Amino acid sequence: PGALARLQPSAAGAGTWTSDVLDAGGAAKWGQLRWIGRGTVTVQTRSGITPVPDGSWSAWSSEYTRQQGQTVASPPGRFLQVRVRMAPQGDIPPRVAAVNVFFRGEKRLPAVAFDKPQGGERWAGSQKVTWKVAGASPESLLYKLSCSADGGKTFKDVAANLPPTLKEVALAAEKEAAPQTEEYSWDTRKVPDGEYVLRIEVLDRTEPSAPVRASATSGPFLVSNAAPTVSVLGHEKSGGEATVIRGLAKARLAWIVSVTYRQGPKGEWMVAEPEDGMFDSDRETFRIVIRTAGDVEVKVVDEAGNTATTTVSP
């Protein structure tokens, strides 16, 4: 048997389009962004100094909604990417015919972005801070690294007048436009535990009368050098030869990620049982079941890598 249906016109559905990476040809400051289109349209941007988006790129910006033009919120850099979200507006199908981004190239303006930290880390001890810089000859640069414990309101020097890495300078002589990776080993034990952001500042020494500076600020992260604590809450026989040891592990800023134990200095490390099923907070109670006599060494590790041990003699 046959069937006959009448089709009604309907608007196209929603969709997302992401551009290729756009190259400004050198370090650039972004201006206005505008588009030609119809329907409900929002646009976002992100920028970086590497031709392929990586961890040093900025996050996607908040949405631009003014078709006639809005200032690009992404930080200066050489490369830009655009993401367009479209949806019907009533019966009007979405369509974007063009997106225009204005920019101004800056002569020998270095651009800089953090690789590490990105934000959200828990750090302890000595940590490697890394950043990428582009837009100037590396041998002409100096760096200043500083930290802030008040969300970026004020900064204290970590290291000043840092020269470029020599091995990177040799590479730049052949490929000056390539982003250079620099690093600094920071001893976090020199600052109190707490939340921090880092700032890297770049000085281009090729124009001493008018030095050009660029800077980048990391996302917030935690410095947590205080060791966790571990205590024994008690132990009891649990049928046969088994002994159950109950303990409590606590950390100040970084969460507890593991509790292990062994019997004897050459014993195999075993995983203790978290009483709530998972080590995922700054305060964890745990159980250990042993079936042979002897001292038990217990080790606690937090997410910053700090450790604490204690010995139990049940």
Give a quick rundown of the structure:
With 314 residues, this protein is mainly beta. It has one helix and 23 strands. The longest helix is centred in the middle third of the chain and has 9 residues, at 166-174.
What does this structure look like?
The chain has about 325 residues and is mainly beta. The protein has 1 helix and 23 strands. The strands form 5 sheets. Strands 1, 2, 3, 4, 5 and 6 form a 6-stranded antiparallel sheet that branches. Strands 8, 10, 11, 13, 14 and 15 form a 6-stranded mixed sheet that branches. About 5% of the residues have low confidence.
Provide keyphrases for this structure.
single chain; 314 residues; six-stranded antiparallel β-sheet; 1 helix; mainly beta; 52% strand
- The arrangement of helices and strands along the chain is EEEEEEEEEEEHEEEEEEEEEEEE
- Extract low-pLDDT stretches: 167-175
Largest sheet: number of strands, sense, barrel closure: 6 strands, antiparallel
Helix content: under 10%
Q: Compute the number of strand runs.
A: 23
Beta-strand content bin: over 45%
**Count of DSSP H/I helices:** 1
Gross morphology: elongated
- Helix/strand structural class: mainly beta
Distance between the termini: 83 Å
User: So what's the oligomer here?
Assistant: single chain
Rg, nearest Å: 28 Å
Mean pLDDT: 87
